[in-house]
Amino acid sequence: MRLLDRQKGGTFLVAVMDEGSAKLQTCTEFLSKMDSIESKIGDLKFRESYVGIFNESQLYEEIFGSTANEDGIANLVTTLKFADGIEKNIELSSAGMDNGNMARIFVEGRDQSLNERGLNVVVLDRNGQVVERTLFDTFLSCQHLTENSELFYDIWTEK
Fold first, then answer.
1. Helices H / strands E in the chain, number of each
2. DSSP state of 36
3. Closest by CA position to 132, among listed 141, 143, 123
4. Do residues 105 and 13 make contact, with C-beta atoms less than 8 angstroms apart?
5. What is the pLDDT of the chain when averaged over all its residues?
6. How far, CA to CA in Å, does 144 sit from each of 59, 76, 92, 138, 148?
């Protein structure tokens, strides 16, 4: 079974640790799909911080590079609403290698991130429950991300 093909209409929380851009530019299918929802993840620079929230077929919010704080750390704190009015507190933090080297994805105060190099991803279902935690090491390779590019796009649109 392809990664997450059982998860339709999910929310994706993304935080980059260390270095996430080295092979990202070779992920053309992924970047094309992300461009179509107006994400700027393709503009990520070497060792830059990045956090993003993607909900169903839309970019909810992203912070990176010049929009990060003066220490180069990207922080995003919000409350997301899910089915039946369920609300979840979400906190994302990212620091590239030169700015702290960490990725944190807190859902209701619990860190769900794998906190490893690359794109750390946590998937929430329509009820706000964590259903998947994964990592795409885009410093080494684009292959896993390319094989699962619908993780960020096709899955949302199949309702």
1. 3, 9
2. H
3. 123
4. yes
5. 84
6. 22, 26, 23, 9, 6
At residue 5, the pLDDT reads 40
User: In Å, how far are 40, 53, 74, 145 from 70, measured between CA atoms?
Assistant: 20, 21, 10, 30
Phi, psi of 149 (to 5 degrees): -60, -25
Burial of 125 (0-12, 13-18, 19+ CB in 10 A): middle
Going from the C-alpha of 34 to that of each of 24, 28, 109, 146, the distances in angstroms are 12, 10, 28, 12
**Tokens 């092979």 map to which residue?**
23
Q: pLDDT (tens digit, 9 = 90+) per residue, 72-124?
A: 899 999 999 998 899 999 999 999 888 899 999 999 999 999 999 999 999 99
- Enter the DSSP assignment of 47: T
What are 63's two structure tokens?
């912070």
The phi, psi pair for 128, rounded to 5°, reads 85, 10
Residue 150 in this model has a pLDDT that exceeds 70: no
